Amino acid sequence: MATLDNKSATAEISELISSTSISKVEDVLKVRSVVLTGNGSYDLIKVIEWPLMAKCAEHEVRVAVEFCGVNFADVYHMKGNVLQWPVPYVLGLESAGKVTQVGSAVRNLHVGDRVVCYCPNEAGMFRESVVVPSTHCFVIPGDICTKVACTLIANYLSAYFAFFSFGNLRSGQTVLIHSAAGGVGWAATQLAASVVGNVRVLGTASENKHHDIVTNGVTEAFTYENYSTHILDAEVDIVIDNIGGDNVKKSVDLLKPFGRVILTGVNCVVQEDESKVAKAFESIASSVVPMQELVMGNKSVCGLHLGTLLRDNPKTFHTAVEQIFSLCQQGLIEPRIHAVFPLSKASEAIKLLAERKNIGKVLLKVE
Amino acid sequence: MATLDNKSATAEISELISSTSISKVEDVLKVRSVVLTGNGSYDLIKVIEWPLMAKCAEHEVRVAVEFCGVNFADVYHMKGNVLQWPVPYVLGLESAGKVTQVGSAVRNLHVGDRVVCYCPNEAGMFRESVVVPSTHCFVIPGDICTKVACTLIANYLSAYFAFFSFGNLRSGQTVLIHSAAGGVGWAATQLAASVVGNVRVLGTASENKHHDIVTNGVTEAFTYENYSTHILDAEVDIVIDNIGGDNVKKSVDLLKPFGRVILTGVNCVVQEDESKVAKAFESIASSVVPMQELVMGNKSVCGLHLGTLLRDNPKTFHTAVEQIFSLCQQGLIEPRIHAVFPLSKASEAIKLLAERKNIGKVLLKVE
Fold first, then answer.
1. Which Pfam families does the UniProt entry name for this protein (chains A, B) (predicted)?
2. Which of A258, A297, A302 sits opposite B300 (nearest CB)?
3. Do B284 and A291 touch (CB under 8 A)?
4. N or C: less crowded end of chain A, CB within 10 Å?
5. Is B265 in the same domain as B191?
6. A-chain residue closest to B263, CA distance
């Protein structure tokens, strides 16, 4: 794992940019970007010029970015919990802006369209300008502003698929939402409380966030320390579990018959101690799924990953995005933006999420 | 584990009956019953007189049995895969007949009612007369005969909860049903093909049963040996898996995004070699659930157990039984009875299931 110090990182990056395999200088732009140059320290996130192809391929579009959405996945990447790509690479899974160039085979997007770009399998979205496969772009309806649209994909889609594709959430049921003040938790609370309605929403968060999550629709707020002593076994229909690890067993205990735990993350791997960086995938693989309890209790465990869904089932994904845009237009969901940082302060934004200080979405803005 | 030989078993049972803790002789009847006197051999299944309380308790009813339904659970009990109760005990989870006595607190059942009795948590149903909690009895509608009613509970309810409570089965989907010629498989095929309709039904069975399962609604028949080479990964919405063990991983591989494996049994524990009797619960506990595949593939694993459901959620269970009776009345499901054995040949009936020679339900008849 590369853990370059500041100076050598800068030198190495300059070299890497100059030695790019793209031979013709006119084919390459240099675009201000948030580059991860090593794992485990916020100092290794650099905001620098980084190469980008000047001409997009036939199925791609170029987008001038206005806002970027910060996700917990960015924390995993920074810490080294997920080692998907060799450093250095450009961070960020989502951004939003205006289409400025369209590949020759793209029919559904046009220059001037406002779009959200979501690239969970490629990253590279935290920069002034991005080139994205057209299938990963979603045209923003006229009455939703670009900033709000940039909060609607990763978080609301996770909540949407959890409750509607897996959970079959219905009025009269009880749900438990962990990290109810986080991006996914905030979205999930609204889907349960406003879209379905008549749902008992149990939510966990630090105590200082309880007032806010209750305002958002949580009916009973708990801390991570006390929730399992207050909620009874066989009380919950759906648990959205972004903690993973040992918590999966706890979540299963709380389920009613035909209840479901939907695993959306493994935040338990984010440790304070950098010397013991846990790997997210290894932690998922070794999560304790109490199979006998599933069988004897008529329970289920579901895994959710937006990246593979968008890659393998783009139509399902696009239909869900349209639903979310429509719910936003109807005023049934109202994203909360915790803070907007300039692109140059991306590392501060990621730190804020890692320290779980946010309530709702954190954005970056291209100055 | 008791493995008495024939003679000593008989002697011990006589002693046990005579030394019953019920002191007043007039309180005890002796009723012809199928008694398991030890594990691992069909010889240890004895059809003998066995004590039964003469007067049922306030929430119980007595039923004069006409038919009993044989289930794979009886095989587990005989083999010793499930050691729920110390031997000797009366085998059997379901029977059907006429109510002959009603406890003082029972309001919903009357002498003369025809009922199916289902006691997955107590067994004791293979006998001429049974005493059953009233919550475990289901009144048979007038136009369904007692024999047919005795095929409708364990098998059809398993299929019903798998597809409708867990699976959310819809027209246009693809399901894989293991043991499509067995009791649950036969029922599940009908629910998919006749009740939902426009469902692609993949089914496994021995080759000599393929004609029959196709007649029942299976659209593509496979053997256990070749199914995984013919069915593609990401092709199936719901797998009903009664094999368990290593097969769970195979089943998960075949799922589409948002697909579900529903674990209804662990038939893999039924070994030919009696010296290596695997325990069903241990095998469930150690089943390989590929958690990372669940997450990366947007998949889920569900456990189904009718016993705990009936105990903890009788209302849910009773509602489902009414649905099944109604589907039968409408002619949308048509149980197939493979064979009817006299009570005295219970061990032959259980052996037939263990050797997987049946197509559809096997019943016992009180002579």
1. ADH_N, ADH_zinc_N_2
2. A302
3. yes
4. C
5. yes
6. A295
**Statement to judge: residues B224 and B348 lie in one domain:** no
Nearest to B147 by CA among B97, B185, B188: B97
Is the pTM higher than 0.90? The answer reads yes
β-sheet bridge partners, residue B331: none
Alpha carbon distance A278, A269 (integer Å): 5
Q: Are A294 and B302 an interchain contact pair (Cβ–Cβ within 8 Å)?
A: yes
Domain for residue A33, yes or no? yes
Q: Can you tell me the distance from the alpha carbon of A66 to that of A148, in angstroms, rounded to the nearest whole number?
A: 11
Which residues, in sequence order, are bridge partners of residue B341?
A: B364
| Cis bond upstream, residue A88 (ω within 30) | yes
User: Residue B232 maps to which CATH number?
Assistant: 3.40.50.720
Q: How many CB pairs under 8 A join A and B?
A: 114
Whole-number Å distance between alpha carbons of A33 and A21: 19
Is there a contact between A301 and B312 if contact means CB atoms under 8 Å apart?
no
Q: Do A289 and B298 touch (CB under 8 A)?
A: no
In angstroms, the CA A350 to CA A96 distance is 18
Tens of pLDDT along A284-321?
777 778 888 999 999 999 999 999 999 999 999 999 99
The CA-based diameter of chain A, rounded to the nearest angstrom, is 65
CB contact under 8 A, A303 and B300: yes
Nearest to B267 by CA among B301, B239, B244: B244
* Nearest Cα residue in chain B from A164: B258
| pLDDT per position as a tens digit, A64-103 | 999 999 999 999 999 988 888 899 999 999 999 999 999 9
Answer whether B300 touches A (CB < 8 Å): yes
Output the pLDDT for position B9: 57
Asked, as a colleague might, if the bond just before B51 is cis with ω within 30 of 0, I would say no
Q: Does B263 touch chain A (CB under 8 A)?
A: yes
Q: Residue B121: closest CA among chain A residues belongs to which residue?
A: A296
Strand partners, B63: B99, B130
Among B303, B320, B355, where does a domain finish? Answer: B303
Look at chain A and report how many structural domains it folds into: 2
Query: Does B239 fall in a domain?
Result: yes
Contacts of B166 in chain A (CB under 8 A): 258, 300
Write the residue in B286, B292, B301 that is nearest to A284 by C-beta.
Answer: B292
- Cβ–Cβ below 8 Å for B294 and A263: yes
C-alpha A225/C-alpha A222 separation (Å) is 8
Give pLDDT tens digits for A16-63: 666 555 556 667 889 999 999 999 999 999 999 999 998 999 999 999
